[in-house]
Structure formats: C-alpha cells, structure tokens
Amino acid sequence: MLRNPKLIPPKGVSITKNKKFMAIAERREAKDWVSIYYTGQEWKLVNTFEVDTFDLTDIMWCKEDTSILVYDSPLEAKILIYSAMTGECLVKHNLQMSTTAKLGESILGLGIKSVTISPNGLYVMAS
Question: Which CATH number does the domain housing residue 102 bear?
C-alpha cells in the first residue's frame, strides 16, 4: 500500500526502464521522502529515505536507473541525486538566483521549472 504520496502522478512518480522498480515522492511529518518499491508480482518496499528539499517538485531515475534525481521548488532551485540503494546524497547542486534585478523589476524566470535527463541518464538539463 502506498502511503502519503506528495504529488498527483505523473509528477512525483518514476519507474525504471525495465519496469522493476518505482520511486514515489512522499510527504511525512512536514518533510519530503522518497520510497522505492519492487514492482514484481507482490509489490515490496525496498528503500525509503528523507530528502533535503524545501518543497520537492518531482523525481526521476538517472545514472542507468541506479540513482534518483530530485529537484526542489523554483524558490529553492536545488537539484539532488541520491543513491537508490543507500539513500545517500551523491550530488547536491544549488542554482544561483540572479542578484542583478533592480527593485521593482520582475524576477520571473528564476529557479527550476523543468528538468530533462539525457537518454543515457548521465547528463541533466534544467530550465
């Protein structure tokens, strides 16, 4: 049974290419978590870990389905990659907000709005 899903699919859910594992974003005790399930005949929880986000926006498998990429709200502008096996944070990248906007100017366009991973799962493009 899946508990505490944070987002409405397809956001917050990612399935490996071989369709054997599913990662789902959850919200528990005012914190973001990722749970990984084996999707065989009987679904089984394999791992669960807390992620260092303010307001997790989406998740996806990367690095040949061995890691989970998590990105934060546009306000936080953070991309993190966690090991699916251990839950250890492998990469933490904070995008810098522009400090050149003058008082009264619009600051639209700052932060992460979407993330794309290269077909081999090794490169990330954020926009």
Answer: 2.130.10.10
> DSSP label at 101?
P
Contact 47, 84 (CB under 8 A): yes
Q: How far apart are CA 80 and CA 68, in angstroms?
A: 8
Indicate whether 59 belongs to any domain.
yes
β 78-83/89-94 pair status: antiparallel
Domain range for residue 99? 13-126
Q: Going residue by residue through the chain (127 aa), what tens digit of pLDDT does each one get?
A: 667 888 888 889 999 999 999 999 999 999 999 999 999 899 999 999 999 999 999 999 998 899 999 999 878 888 999 999 999 999 998 876 555 555 544 444 566 777 888 777 667 777 7
| Within a domain: 120 | yes
Q: What are phi and psi of 63, to 5 degrees?
A: 50, 55
The number of domains in the chain is 1
